[in-house]
Write a structure and sequence with these properties.
The protein is of the alpha+beta class. The chain has 7 helices and 12 strands.
């Protein structure tokens, strides 16, 4: 009996040792494990951060692109600029392209959000999660409503951004280590798509185009400087890198902004490219409409021609023509003559 108990105890110790080893190496913990929010980054992830000149405790930025269904994690490097560390596939998001407007519309939010430790949810029913912070200052000034809009696991969404459990486990750990490194928050940028002039031109008829052009300035700033722009709200619109301290009145006048080298030229070039792309889209739409009209006209002409041939060769109906088939049964043939 004693030997049996010793063998069972030894087996249990081995299982615990294996489990600890897996966790220490960044192994994935199941949803049933209450310590899943503390699972460490894998050695491979830490090596990747070192190779790009960063570390787990450095500042980070998350960017989400709905149409591309991607979530990007960017980390600050020793050079001071942010560099993209990893891209994760989004399993699902709710609704269409465009911001969330009201509670229950099943839309996923778009815009700029600030994620603090208080928005992290280590006990989520969807494995792990962090709250997007919706509604933010911009959303509130427009009267937009909604609650518990998350980035979470479980690959299922009702207004949130759903990741795989393995994906959110690593994203959560990266955020946790960023906070441990002394960063009080990180920026979350959510866009409908990659904010190029050509893509905006394709969506020029959308009722959200004004909003998208507003947040595009923040997108362009990040692309240009590789640093998250400071954002606020004034005149019911986003403003980036405003001069002066203190929070702005979301309905008050906008102050001057810090001039970034090359930004004005980039914005002018982008606006010109947008106008040109819109014109090209309009020309393409007009060409497609003309081709469709011509196709319908040709189809109608062919139908008329075929109908005319039918009339010529008896395909049409004539009141003076008596049908050959009367509908009466054919007479039985007579038996053959006997010779």
């Amino acid at each position: 009996m004693t030997a049996l108990l010793l063998r069972k105890f030894s087996s249990a110790l081995i299982l615990l040792w294996v489990a600890f080893g897996l966790v220490a190496c960044g192994g994935f913990l199941p949803k049933s494990n209450d310590n899943r929010h503390n699972q460490p980054l894998s050695s491979l992830t830490e090596a990747g951060l070192r190779n790009m000149g960063s570390s787990p405790g450095e500042a980070m930025v998350i960017r989400i692109f709905k149409e591309e269904k991607t979530l990007e994690v960017w980390k600050r490097t020793s050079a001071g600029q942010f560099k993209m560390f990893k891209t994760y596939e989004i399993c699902a998001f709710s609704g269409d392209l465009g911001p969330k407007i009201k509670e229950g519309d099943r839309q996923s939010p778009e815009g700029f959000y600030t994620i603090t430790p208080g928005l992290m949810n280590p006990r989520s029913n969807y494995y792990l999660a962090f709250n997007t912070g919706f509604p933010n200052k911009f959303d509130r000034v427009w009267g937009r409503t909604g609650s518990d809009l998350m980035v979470h696991g479980d690959c299922s969404s009702r207004g949130c951004y759903a990741m795989t459990d393995e994906g959110i486990a690593e994203i959560y750990a990266l955020a946790r280590e960023t906070f441990k490194g002394g960063n009080q928050s990180f920026q979350l940028q959510i866009f409908p798509f990659k904010m190029t002039a050509a893509k905006l031109a394709q969506k020029a008829s959308s009722p959200h185009i004004g909003f998208w052009k507003d947040i595009k300035e923040g997108y362009d700033l990040f692309e240009l400087t590789k640093a998250p722009p400071a954002w606020d709200v004034c005149e019911r619109q986003y403003i980036f890198n405003a001069i002066g301290g203190g929070a702005l009145n979301p309905m008050g006048p906008c102050p001057a902004v810090t001039q970034i080298a090359g930004l004005a030229e980039k914005l002018q070039a982008e606006e010109a490219a947008f106008a040109s792309a819109v014109e090209s889209e309009a020309q393409r739409a007009a060409r497609m409409a003309a081709e469709e009209a011509a196709l319908k006209e040709r189809s109608a002409a062919i139908s008329g021609f075929v109908g005319g041939l039918g009339n010529i060769f008896g395909g049409g109906k004539d009141a003076d023509i008596v049908p050959v088939i009367s509908g009466k049964p054919a007479p039985r043939p007579l038996p053959p003559l006997q010779r």
